[in-house]
Amino acid sequence: MAKDSKVIAANAAFYTAFSTGDFDGMKRMWADDDAISCIHPGWPAIVGHATVIGSWRDILQNPERPQIVCAEPQAIVDGDSARVLCIEIVDGTALAAANHFRRVGDDWRMVHHQSSPIAQIVEQAEDDRASHRVH
């Protein structure tokens, strides 16, 4: 298996756990130590196993949790560290995401997740610039 395909598979398992509300699966995705962190969209950074896993428990137990799909995953592997950059489609809105992993034995475990809105290109800005041109 290519060195990045296991990381892509771990990333896919993370999104499967999220989309199915599988808290036990989500918990297994994360490294089991206090050096993990997460930044959910609009949240401050959270650090530590209990806090990060607790945030996922609360999100996954919410019956109104958002629907999520991972698109365009790209793995970058550097020894026992890796990150997957991707687009999250959350209830129809695109977010940029970075999922960082550490190799633990033969598995990749998440150590950091961060996602945030992607700035949209606003056609109005183009129109505004055009209307202010001096001819």
Automatic annotation (TrEMBL):
Family annotation (Gene3D superfamilies): 3.10.450.50
Matching InterPro entries: NTF2-like_dom_sf, SnoaL-like
SUPFAM superfamilies: NTF2-like
Matching Pfam families: SnoaL_3
Domain spans labelled SnoaL-like: 7-119
Protein name, as recorded: SnoaL-like domain-containing protein
